[in-house]
Design a protein that fits this description.
The structure holds 2 protein chains of 2 kinds. By secondary structure, chain A is of the alpha/beta class. Helices cover 41% and strands 19% of the residues of chain A. Chain A contains 32 helices and 31 strands. Chain A has an 8-stranded mixed sheet. The N terminus of chain B is likely disordered. Chain B has 5 helices and 7 strands, in the order ααβαβαββαβββ. Classes of the chains: A alpha/beta, B alpha/beta. Chains A and B meet through α18 of A and α2 and α4 of B.
Chain lengths: 816, 158
């Protein structure tokens, strides 16, 4: 909606669908979409983004806004500058009169809503709906404002204008800058929606917001309006429902001392004490919980993605008409899971966990462990003065105004709130360890004191607890939150191939693979963005070590304690050539031959240029020793001669990578010489092999993989290739050496999987999308093999019995 | 604000490896009249897009990457670059594209790139690492682009 097209100023929810985000924002578009899908949504209309555009253009304040932004925010990391810009812009918007024709349009539609709801002056919720809001990967939740229990024309118009100005709250400006959204591209629409007179309200997730378990629906609810949950004022009731059979699995009833309700006299939202007899009663009945879960499931099915849903239960209507969905948006944490940032503070005295003093305990809302200095702050203004990068932010509860300070915090601890409160949602999204509902954190934790926040267990300890902050345990903490959905058991391990670390956690959780059979280094090199020789020339060795270590860490941590087999960099010379520095260090150095696939690559390259190979070894060492991730093993690709392997292994040892029970060294079997000399490689000390069927087929059949003219005869199932693999597996089995495969053949051909299982390969590594399918196939083959074995055994027993009977018959004494 | 930022660290972005010039040339030859072309996963390699800007001055060019730092850096070169995660894409960024291309995409992202292209009915052009060519070679509807030095595969939706 950037051109000169004309759009309506107001649109009713029933006219909207999800594709209307550019004109009515995510919130309104979703309300319309849900209404169309048969989800109960309170009636209302959207004041479109076009109306806002007309407002800022016709009153000529648009240019002023962007000038203020440009002039005020000079340091994107300074929260105060966001606040200053926000103040100026909001005052400007809120003091600018709405053009007459636009006022008239909004008022006429409000009157229609009154008529529709049979009310003289209906109470409405006026909610912001930004055009870039709530899109997958961009949670703008709660950044723009909402006004509840609004009644009357003037109050409505003022609230609409305040919603418009809330496009420029400090946190909204901050989020857009962080997410790379351009301020001028984000417009705002406003939803005007009949208020539900809430008996209870809350939030639902169609997956477990902490563990990511998709088999559960999690519901949190409180008495009155749902704002009490998001603001963290009340610890909510917590329910978990099985998504498949809709059975209530968990019911945790919290003591709910306060509620937000509409004052029957003034119509305003008030904060009041809950009568003692209701405080510990469930805010939802069982039938309401199940009905809500059904709706959550329906919404998720409709959108095809996990949802974060707000609901309200009307006190004036009978069940099930009393249940309304007021908002649904894509769940943004597990869909864009970020790495937990867990950095222990260096140089501080450490203590053992057995001696550690527990300071407070609460709900572990965002997993991770962090040690640092606490800053007890009770308001965003207070935070602006005190919070520095890496501090533990301790407060009663956060709201969207806190986001700039949460962003720089190392961990967050709050007195109030449940798993779906603001602090919990935002900290999960930011990947910051967070404990909520810790009751007395602001009293018991002292400003400037060092603490260890164990957001796996929900405990804060005094000082730095060494056992917790050391990386091995941190890994355990992260691993503990992965979904425990038992995969089919197979004797042959099913590994996964990975090339980018950012998807590791998701792949580990979704596939339940037994490890990573091939972690490729090439995309790590691409992300560094330069030829390694150029890096060395520029003194950037550490940059490469750190970048590789960080990538490998992400994968090793996601799969811990399962093995991750890192394959050393295997760019072909023509691929190195495409990196900056490639012309000089590849072409001019004479590395690019006529056929790069069989040129200067693999193990030969490592021993010719050991200084580059050593950088990779140091990255592995860093991951294994500094981060304690001993599940990282290595694999040497494109080995041609035994001597190459021996020399590469020697370099590894010189760099401190010594073979042992927890450090295995594999080679890729992709050159026929490794097949023919497998016994010699075993003598040289390999722990395992992995077939690279792509190159192995190319070299056994003499087919250039990059030559289209001969591709039609390329076939990994060729008998020569199968015989080669059979030979290697048999020799390796004899010597107790692991055999695996990471080429494409198992993904393409089920018969190759069957062949490998029958031959006795110990593992099969496939691309992420093939793991589950391959596991099921392997399970079926293994069962078939066992059944064949049993039948064979039965036949042999039958034969033995028959022979025995004959003997008995022959020797029976009665016959004598 | 953008103009005031330092350009240090971008020197290495200036000297383009020839490969990217060839990529740009191939795209310009195949899509001389394209209204919009999007590069997925530009990373810190802007050279193909920079050259396309010269070769196709009338075409709207956009690149996306999940890494905010890369995006910020490339914007300083005057490129139209947006932060986007193709696993959870903002589909509106790709609307009205004639072509979506990706240079050496990780194999984990291929399906997502395809889904985006299908949704917006754009053609897809991929320049894979040789190790990943099996994902495209003899896999209709992918077809190999006839080029003397580039390994490229195309899938047409348009």
């Amino acid at each position: 909606m950037t051109g000169k097209e004309e759009y309506p100023l107001v649109m009713w929810f029933e006219e909207l669908k999800k594709d209307d985000v550019p004109i009515v924002g995510g919130k309104c578009a979703n309300l319309g979409e849900m209404l169309r899908a048969g989800i109960p949504v309170p009636p209302g209309f959207a004041v479109t983004a076009y109306a806002y555009k007309k407002f800022i253009e016709e009153t000529k304040i648009a240019e002023k806004i962007y000038d203020i932004l440009d002039e005020t925010i000079k340091d994107p990391k300074d929260p105060k500058q966001y606040e200053e810009a926000s103040k100026k812009i909001r005052a400007l918007i809120e003091s600018t009169p709405i053009p007459e024709y636009l006022r008239k349009e909004i008022i006429e539609n409000y009157k229609k809503l009154c008529k529709k709801t049979k009310s003289k002056e209906v109470f409405v919720a006026v909610r912001s709906s930004a055009t870039a809001e709530d899109l997958p990967g961009a949670s703008f939740a709660g950044q723009q404002e909402t006004f509840l229990n609004v009644r009357g024309e003037e109050e409505l118009l003022n609230s609409v204008r305040k919603c418009w100005s809330s496009l420029f709250t400090p946190r909204a400006i901050f989020y857009r800058t962080q997410k790379g959204f351009r301020h001028e591209k984000v417009l705002i629409s406003v939803a005007v929606q009949k208020m539900v007179n809430s008996k209870a309200a809350g939030v639902m997730f169609t997956l477990h917001p902490v563990t990511g378990d998709t088999s559960k629906i999690v519901i949190e609810s409180v008495w009155g309006l749902g704002e009490a949950i998001v603001s963290g004022a009340v610890t909510p009731d917590h329910f978990e429902v099985d998504k498949n059979n809709l059975k209530i699995l968990v019911k945790q009833i919290a003591k709910k001392t306060v509620e937000y309700v509409r004052d029957p006299k003034t119509g305003k939202t008030v904060h009041r004490e809950v009568p003692p007899e209701r405080q510990e009663k469930p805010s939802l009945t069982d039938e309401e919980i199940i009905e809500l879960a059904k709706l959550a499931k329906k919404i998720e099915e409709h959108y095809g993605t996990a949802q974060d849903i707000e609901f309200a239960v009307d006190r004036d209507l009978p069940f099930p008409e009393n249940i309304f969905i007021v908002q649904s948006r894509p769940e943004t944490v597990w869909s864009v899971k970020k790495e937990e940032a867990e950095k222990a503070s260096a140089g501080t005295e450490t203590i053992a966990i057995t001696e550690a003093k527990m300071v407070v305990k609460g709900l572990p809302a965002s997993p991770g462990i962090y040690a640092g200095k606490a800053k007890v702050v009770l308001s965003p203004e207070d935070a602006a003065k005190k919070i520095q990068k890496g501090d533990i932010l301790v407060t009663k509860m956060t709201n969207p105004d806190w986001v700039p300070y949460m962003r720089v915090a190392g961990a967050i601890v709050t007195d109030e709130g449940g798993m779906t409160c603001h602090a919990a949602i935002v900290s999960r999204e930011l990947g910051i360890p967070c404990i909520v509902g810790a009751k007395d954190a602001t009293k018991n934790m002292a400003d400037g004191q060092t603490y260890t926040v164990d957001a796996k267990a929900g405990v804060v300890y005094e000082g730095v607890v060494e056992e917790l902050v050391k990386p091995a345990e941190k890994v355990e903490a992260a691993a503990a939150v992965t979904v425990a959905q038992a995969p089919v058991l197979t004797g042959t391990k099913i590994f996964v191939n990975l090339s980018i670390p950012d998807v590791a956690e998701k792949v580990a959780k979704e596939t339940q693979a037994d490890g990573v059979g091939l972690l490729r280094a090439e995309h790590l090199m691409l992300s560094v963005g330069k030829h390694p020789r150029l890096l060395i020339e520029e003194g950037g060795e550490q940059k490469m070590i750190d970048a590789f270590a960080e990538g490998i860490r992400k994968v090793a941590q996601a799969f811990f304690p399962k093995p991750v087999v890192y394959r050393f960099l295997d760019f072909k010379p023509d691929e190195f050539l495409t990196l900056p520095g490639g012309e000089k260090y590849e072409k001019e150095a004479g590395h690019v031959g006529p056929n790069p696939l069989i040129g200067y690559r693999g193990a030969f390259r490592y021993i010719k240029e050991p200084d580059i190979f050593r950088l990779e070894c140091r990255a592995i060492k860093k991951v294994r020793e500094e981060y304690g991730l001993k599940n990282v093993w290595v694999m040497v690709p494109f080995v041609r001669r035994v001597e190459e392997f021996i020399q590469a292994k020697k370099i590894m040892e010189e760099e401190g990578l010594k073979q042992g029970p927890d450090f295995k060294v594999w080679i890729m079997v992709e050159v026929p010489s490794t097949v023919l000399l497998i016994d010699k490689f075993i003598e040289a000390g390999i722990d395992g092999v992995s077939f690279g069927t792509n190159d192995l087929t190319m070299l056994i059949l003499g087919i250039d993989r990059d030559d289209a003219a001969v591709q039609e005869i390329y076939d990994e199932r060729n008998l020569a290739v199968l015989r080669a693999m059979s030979h290697v597996i048999r020799i390796c089995r004899k010597h107790g050496v692991t055999t695996s495969i990471c080429g494409q053949a198992p993904s393409n051909y089920p018969e190759v999987v069957e062949f490998l299982v029958k031959e006795g390969a110990t593992s099969i590594s496939v691309n992420p999308d093939k793991v589950i399918e391959t596991r099921n196939l392997v399970a079926m083959i293994e069962r078939k093999l066992m059944l064949d074995e049993l039948r064979d055994l039965r036949e042999r027993l039958d034969r033995l019995e028959k022979n025995a009977e004959k003997k008995i018959f022959k020797w029976s004494p009665e016959l004598d | 604000m953008r103009r005031r930022r330092s350009l240090s660290g971008l020197q290495n972005l200036i000297k383009p490896p020839k490969y990217f010039l060839e990529v740009a040339k191939l795209i310009a030859d195949l899509y001389p009249d394209a209204e919009k072309i999007v590069e997925i996963g530009i990373g810190l390699a802007p050279w193909a897009l920079l050259n396309l800007k010269k070769l196709l001055p009338k075409t709207t060019l956009l690149a996306v990457d999940v890494d905010e730092v890369s995006v910020m850096k490339l914007r300083k070169l005057g490129l139209n670059v947006e932060v986007d995660d193709v696993l959870n894409p903002r589909i509106e960024l790709y609307q009205k594209s004639n072509l979506i291309y990706s240079i050496r995409p990780p194999m984990e992202l291929i399906d997502s790139i395809l889904r985006i292209a299908e949704k917006v009915r754009a053609d897809v052009l991929v320049f894979p690492l040789s190790e990943d060519s099996y994902l495209f070679e003899f896999r209709p509807p992918w077809s190999r682009v006839d080029h003397p030095s580039l390994l490229a595969f195309i899938l047409k939706h348009g």
